[in-house]
Amino acid sequence: MESQMIRPGHLTAHQTARALGISLDGVRQLVRRGELARSGGSPRQPWYPAANVMALVAKRAVTKAA
To answer: What's the pTM?
Structure first.
């Protein structure tokens, strides 16, 4: 279940995974590799800055196009 009280400008792990087209495990791997940082929430329900997620979406789109 996703948190109902999320700060503006942030995405849940589920929303992040959907935006990037990856699984929740993929999101965890991005965090482990340092490509994405948590910015709130709880250890079980982290939040990610929407701007950082959208930057990753754009980076992945450029990589796919190249």
So the answer is: 0.86
